[in-house]
């Protein structure tokens, strides 16, 4: 983005800039508001209800709203509220279910950011007169004469640029990430020092609409799995059926826990991993080989990409990260089938899962993302035992 088209708030004085903060009632978003207030911005909060009232108990929405209100009272700023549950159900949750039904492992955090926080929330904030929005993500935005860039957060253990890589650049240009320069270890101390009432509130984990419940149990309320055989790929039990699964939708590539495969006759005590899922035969292939070829693919293919830069020339060397907690690995990105990409890694990532996102980086600079379609080239897939 050229300098003369930079967002107006970038060059405004803080006192002239109205920023609406997405407040969840948690520590990160509260300290985001705190930092902006201390910097002299006109700050307001907005609490998003993203799950319908009949389900709200799972997310403790009412309690979280009360916490957000208490923070706004302590900071002496207004608090708005907005119900985006209809948008969430149709644009995030529906895709989440459809993806699992198709055997993929979707990432609802990426979808929620793209569809709700940086679309529905942004547009609502604009109607309230905001110059910019802010969230508690650990990421950085830089504006200069060469354009706007999304960068990793300074805290490598909390960087959340992975979850933002599918957000349109037009939305990121209107966004502030005050925690991008901050380490997580300092955030709670900042909340305590400021006397914020949520300074000791535990961090939320997992997906809001699932809450503290068992993930498989949650899926069973919405999707019916088709039972099928569990078979071994590789090793002395190669091809043998060693059990029955309740449905491929409940498993993801590389999964180790929750397989229920202890004490298999003729097998070692080593852990079992999901190697692949055969949707045609409803077969779950498992292995005790941590380096099974299906778990260490060096190539993947994607859907058409979303770039945060001008569309690059191919082939393009960069780094790619295939899950949030994995490291980015050097790779070559090239054109793939149907407008997608083919990504070839210098070293294999662990357990590439269709439905997750490949996010591309040049050092700290996030270049864009694409949803993973397949591990391996479609015309040269790793085969499991027949």
From TrEMBL:
Function: Catalyzes the 2-thiolation of uridine at the wobble position (U34) of tRNA, leading to the formation of s(2)U34.
Residue ranges of domain tRNA-specific 2-thiouridylase MnmA-like C-terminal in the record: 298-372
Site positions (Interaction with tRNA): 137, 356
Chain sites annotated for binding ATP: 22-29, 48, 136
Keyword GTP-binding: no
The protein, known as: tRNA-specific 2-thiouridylase MnmA
Gene from which this protein is expressed: mnmA
InterPro entries on file: MnmA-like, MnmA-like_C, MnmA-like_central, MnmA-like_central_sf, Rossmann-like_a/b/a_fold
Keyword set includes Chaperone: no
Localisation per UniProt entry: Cytoplasm
Record-annotated tRNA-specific 2-thiouridylase MnmA-like central domain positions: 217-287
One Pfam family hit: tRNA_Me_trans
UniProt source species: Salinisphaera dokdonensis CL-ES53
Transmembrane domains' residue ranges: none
Family: Belongs to the MnmA/TRMU family.
Enzyme Commission identifier(s): 2.8.1.13
SUPFAM superfamilies to which the protein is assigned, alphabetical: Adenine nucleotide alpha hydrolases-like
Reactions the enzyme catalyzes: S-sulfanyl-L-cysteinyl-[protein] + uridine(34) in tRNA + AH2 + ATP = 2-thiouridine(34) in tRNA + L-cysteinyl-[protein] + A + AMP + diphosphate + H(+)
Keywords, ordered alphabetically: ATP-binding, Cytoplasm, Disulfide bond, Nucleotide-binding, RNA-binding, Transferase, tRNA processing, tRNA-binding
Broad class of where this protein is predominantly found: cytoplasm
Region annotated Interaction with tRNA, chain positions: 158-160, 323-324
List of catalytic residues: 112 (nucleophile), 208 (cysteine persulfide intermediate)
């Amino acid at each position: 983005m050229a300098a003369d088209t930079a967002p107006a708030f970038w060059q405004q004085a803080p006192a002239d800039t109205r920023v609406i903060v997405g407040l969840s009632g948690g520590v990160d978003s509260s300290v985001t508001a705190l930092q902006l207030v201390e910097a002299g911005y006109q700050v307001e909060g907005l609490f998003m209800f993203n799950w319908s009232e009949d389900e709200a108990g799972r997310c403790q929405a009412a309690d979280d709203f009360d916490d957000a209100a208490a923070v706004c009272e302590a900071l002496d700023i207004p608090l708005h509220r907005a119900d985006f549950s209809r948008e969430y159900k149709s644009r995030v949750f529906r895709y989440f279910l459809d993806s699992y039904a198709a055997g993929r492992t979707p990432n609802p955090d990426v979808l929620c950011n793209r569809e709700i926080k940086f679309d529905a929330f942004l547009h609502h904030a604009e109607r309230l007169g905001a110059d910019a929005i802010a969230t508690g993500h650990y990421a950085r935005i830089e504006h200069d004469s060469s354009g706007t860039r999304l960068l990793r957060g300074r805290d490598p253990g909390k960087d959340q640029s992975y979850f933002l890589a599918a957000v349109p650049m037009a939305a990121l240009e209107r966004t502030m990430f005050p925690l991008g320069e901050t380490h997580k270890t300092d955030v709670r101390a900042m909340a305590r020092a400021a006397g914020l009432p949520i300074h000791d509130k535990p961090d939320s984990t997992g997906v809001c609409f699932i809450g503290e419940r068992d993930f498989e149990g949650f899926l069973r309320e919405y999707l019916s799995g088709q039972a099928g055989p569990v078979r071994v790929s590789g090793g002395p039990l190669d091809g043998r059926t060693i059990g029955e699964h309740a449905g491929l939708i409940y498993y993801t590539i590389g999964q180790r826990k929750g397989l229920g495969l202890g004490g298999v006759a003729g097998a070692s005590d080593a852990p079992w991993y999901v190697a692949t899922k055969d949707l045609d035969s409803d077969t779950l292939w498992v292995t005790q080989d941590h380096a099974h070829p299906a778990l260490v693919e060096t190539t993947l293919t994607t859907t058409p990409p979303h770039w945060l830069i001008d569309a690059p020339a191919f082939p393009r060397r960069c780094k790619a990260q295939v899950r949030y907690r994995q490291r980015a690995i050097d790779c070559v990105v090239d054109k793939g089938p149907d407008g997608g990409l083919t990504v070839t890694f210098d070293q294999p990532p662990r357990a590439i899962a269709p439905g997750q996102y490949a996010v591309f980086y040049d050092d700290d600079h996030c270049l864009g993302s694409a949803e993973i379609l397949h591990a391996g080239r479609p015309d040269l897939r790793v085969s499991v035992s027949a």
